[in-house]
Design goal:
single chain, 153 residues, alpha+beta, four-stranded antiparallel β-sheet, two-stranded antiparallel ribbon, 3 helices, 27% helix, ResB-like_domain, membrane, cytochrome c-type biogenesis, Cyt_c_bgen_Ccs1/CcsB/ResB, transmembrane
Length: 153
């Protein structure tokens, strides 16, 4: 079938979900000059012209075609921006998870025999304080005399 075609289905009885194949009339219009009618099994029932007022019997219904109006309720298209939207959403989720990670910085400055230590964290301040204390406990102490000797070198 080439070109456009409009179609509809007119049920002969109420459609019950899960009740099998519905009974009714399928109506197909290709050129708006005539319509083809088919029964529930897809068997051709006949052709009628709009305004002919000549009824046709299909599935126990008398069908008369008065007029044809072209309209569409379903439009299929491709949107090339969808992958970009999904990639943006994935990036948003990734950065949201990364924002929950703790980021800490530690600075040390030696002035003569004194070491000044400072730090900053964006989360988990209690565990950062404990970690900083453990770090200071692991630093070996040197006698003051050895520091002065090292400074002279």
């Amino acid at each position: 079938m080439k070109g456009r075609a409009w179609g509809t289905f007119v049920p002969a009885e109420p459609i019950i979900e899960g009740g099998g194949q519905p009974k009714g009339v399928s109506i197909i219009a290709r050129d708006f000059q005539s319509v083809a009618l088919y029964d529930s099994a897809g068997k051709f029932a006949g052709v009628r012209r709009p305004g002919s007022n000549k009824p046709i019997e299909v599935e126990g219904m008398r069908v008369t075609v008065d007029n044809l109006i072209g309209a569409t309720g379903l439009e299929l298209k491709v949107d090339p921006g969808v992958p970009l939207v999904y990639a943006g959403f994935g990036g948003l989720m990734l950065t949201t998870m990364v924002s929950y990670l703790s980021h800490s910085q530690i600075w040390a400055l030696q002035e003569g025999g004194t070491v000044h230590l400072s730090g900053k964290t964006n989360r988990a301040t209690v565990s950062f304080t404990q970690e900083l204390s453990r770090l200071l406990d692991d630093v070996p102490e040197r006698p003051v005399a050895s520091l002065e000797t090292a400074a002279e070198l």
